[in-house]
From TrEMBL:
Part of the 50S ribosomal subunit. It comes from Salinarimonas ramus. Keywords: Ribonucleoprotein, Ribosomal protein, RNA-binding, rRNA-binding. The keyword Nucleotide-binding does not apply. It comes from the Bacteria. HAMAP family: Ribosomal_uL22_B. One of its GO terms (biological process) is translation. This is Large ribosomal subunit protein uL22. Pfam families: Ribosomal_L22 (PF00237). Gene3D superfamilies: Ribosomal protein L22/L17. PROSITE patterns: RIBOSOMAL_L22.
């Protein structure tokens, strides 16, 4: 008597990886995620490798995880993979306080983000 296995939410030719609690604002992370949307996996990895953005390292790690999931868990061919989706979501926001002049204070918001990358195997024409 256990729970029945959860049905797979993605089609059989797709795999995904989720990276949670990244310490960067969703707006900044979305700039890097936009670099890889719709590209072949090899090109996307090269773009992230040579990007000057700090967060590109973490996005590359997530993309490599999605590729490994596709290869090991779903038996997809790595050479035919394309980044179908790369979307960003909000996570918590740490609120901090910065002392200002005349006894005032300023709020500092330190946002966190979630990143989801979905790769799809597309047959070569």
């Amino acid at each position: 008597m256990g729970k029945p296995a959860q049905t797979r939410s993605l089609p059989s030719n797709e795999a995904r990886a989720v990276l949670r609690m990244l310490r960067i604002s969703p707006q900044k992370l979305n700039l890097v995620a936009g670099l890889i949307r719709g590209k072949k996996v090899g090109v996307a990895l090269a773009d992230l490798e040579f990007s000057k953005k700090r967060i590109a390292r973490d996005v590359k790690k997530c993309l490599e995880s999605a590729i490994a999931n596709a290869e090991n868990n779903h038996d997809l061919d790595v050479d035919d993979l394309v980044v179908k989706e790369a979307f960003v979501g909000k996570a918590l926001v740490m609120k901090r306080f910065h002392a200002r002049a005349r006894g005032r204070g300023a709020r500092i918001m330190k946002p966190f983000s979630n990143l989801t990358i979905v790769v799809r195997e597309e047959a070569q024409a």
